[in-house]
């Protein structure tokens, strides 16, 4: 009896353990499955919709402090169809601001949104899906390059003091709209409050140019105003800039724009961590801008030394990566070969032209300045028409072959025209057009981006010099 009781107790106890183990396993497996499979694409963001009044490629531009000093991401370029429809999928690792057309949008990992955007009227944008209320609020964000609130000319009053009061009142209205958002996170609220203050500061600074323009002052009167106004800027922005040193705010474009004023006029400890970070970002931003116009390896060596003085790895690393991509393929480097299709849809290679001086005119059907430059390119072609050692090669980066063929016929571009997949040749950094690249007889790049297509005489002289070397 005792033995049977013990057996039953043990059996019952084992059943309990098995049940508990089963419950634990069944509880763990779904969670494990969700985390395992969910992590795979958790940072994917999908944006689709329609954008009008722009016939160009568009970049979903990362506006963060790091994004602004990093090379463009080809994954985030897209070309809407003829009706303006588009769809793009990209990776976003943490919540942050991006620019789509002229609209600032806020994206978080996993977002899926639909947008309707008019490039000329960002305030008319419509949003559906993730964070739509936040992005609806952001569509009225002032444009820093247009002087923030100076963009609204009605806010520029008769006197500077009245104008500043108008800026502050407008900022208060923006703040009320911000606090009315039901789904905004504390981080979003903090950043947008900082944006309002930064916009006021940027607006005051921008009065240097916008006040004379708004009041249609003569050139002499404008100069007198600027000579009087500019020395007062520090005092005028002091109420807004005091205790405004915070490197987290560098993820706001307008804060990036006024960062120099923040450091110059703020009374906070100049040795604080945020202050030092902002100073480093200003330096990094300056170096990045400079690198965009450098194509000589000798210059890259000097820039490399300056980059290595940056302590913050978050800023130093993207600069070194950008420098690496630039120095691999710079003036004096061997030309990177690439495959293309000619007008007869036959495969060709750049190396097929080895031994000649080659002018590569990169263009696209959606690039207005490229089309305008066709007469100059044709004039250069005619100048060398009897010289078999020179090739003026038109290279389209269009994704739509039919549009390319139509343009070739419409503009009478002739046989020397190719079409390529620009993403297959990242070394050429074809993120902006038009672009002229010149390769010499030794298949070396001798001008990576030194000429505008409109500089007909300069290009002819440069090519003639290469022919006699």
TrEMBL record:
InterPro entries: Redoxin (IPR013740), Thioredoxin-like_sf (IPR036249), Thioredoxin_domain (IPR013766), Thioredoxin_ResA/DsbE_sf (IPR050553)
Alphabetical UniProt keywords: Cytochrome c-type biogenesis, Disulfide bond, Redox-active center
Main location: other
Gene Ontology annotations for the cellular component aspect, listed alphabetically: cell envelope
Superkingdom classification of source: Bacteria
Nuclease as UniProt keyword: no
Protein name per its UniProtKB record: Redoxin domain-containing protein
């Amino acid at each position: 009896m005792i033995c049977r009781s013990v057996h039953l107790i043990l059996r019952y106890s084992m059943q309990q353990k098995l049940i508990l183990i089963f419950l634990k396993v069944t509880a763990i497996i779904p969670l494990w499955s969700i985390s395992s499979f969910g992590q795979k694409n958790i940072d994917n963001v999908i944006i689709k919709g329609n954008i009008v009044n722009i016939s160009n490629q568009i970049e979903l531009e990362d506006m963060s402090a790091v994004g602004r000093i990093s090379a463009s991401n080809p994954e985030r370029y897209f070309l809407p169809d003829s009706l303006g429809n588009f769809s793009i999928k990209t990776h976003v690792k943490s919540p942050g601001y991006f620019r789509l057309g002229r609209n600032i949008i806020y994206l978080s990992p996993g977002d899926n949104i639909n947008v309707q955007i008019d490039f000329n009227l960002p305030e008319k944008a419509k949003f559906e899906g993730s964070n739509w209320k936040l992005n609806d609020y952001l569509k009225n964000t002032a444009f820093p390059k247009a002087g923030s609130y100076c963009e609204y000319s009605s806010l520029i009053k008769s006197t500077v003091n009245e104008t500043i009061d108008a800026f502050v009142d407008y900022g208060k209205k923006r703040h009320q709209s911000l606090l009315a958002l039901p789904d905004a996170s504390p981080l979003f609220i903090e950043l947008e409050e900082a944006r309002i203050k930064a916009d006021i500061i940027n607006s005051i600074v921008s009065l240097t140019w916008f006040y004379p323009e708004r009041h249609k002052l003569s050139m002499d009167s404008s100069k007198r105003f600027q000579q009087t106004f500019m020395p007062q800027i520090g005092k005028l922005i002091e109420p807004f800039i005091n205790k405004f040193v915070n490197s987290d705010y560098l993820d706001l474009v307008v804060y990036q724009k006024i960062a120099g004023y923040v450091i110059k006029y703020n009374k906070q400890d100049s040795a604080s961590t945020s202050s030092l970070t902002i100073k480093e970002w200003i330096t990094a931003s300056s170096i990045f801008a400079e690198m965009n116009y450098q194509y000589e390896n000798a210059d890259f060596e000097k820039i490399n030394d300056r980059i290595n003085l940056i302590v913050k790895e978050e800023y130093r690393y993207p600069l070194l990566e950008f420098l690496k991509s630039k120095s691999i393929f710079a003036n004096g480097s061997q030309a990177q070969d690439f495959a293309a299709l000619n007008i007869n849809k036959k495969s060709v290679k750049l190396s097929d032209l080895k031994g000649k001086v080659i002018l590569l005119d990169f263009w696209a059907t959606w690039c207005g300045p490229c089309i305008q430059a066709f007469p100059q390119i044709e004039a250069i072609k005619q100048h060398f028409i009897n010289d078999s050692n020179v090739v003026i090669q038109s290279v389209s980066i269009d994704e739509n072959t039919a549009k390319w063929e139509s343009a070739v016929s419409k503009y009478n571009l002739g046989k020397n025209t190719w079409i390529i997949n620009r993403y297959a040749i990242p070394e050429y950094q074809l993120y902006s057009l038009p672009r002229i690249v010149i390769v010499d007889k030794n298949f070396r790049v001798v001008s990576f981006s030194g000429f505008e297509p409109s500089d007909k005489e300069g290009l002819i002289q440069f090519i003639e010099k290469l022919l006699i070397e």
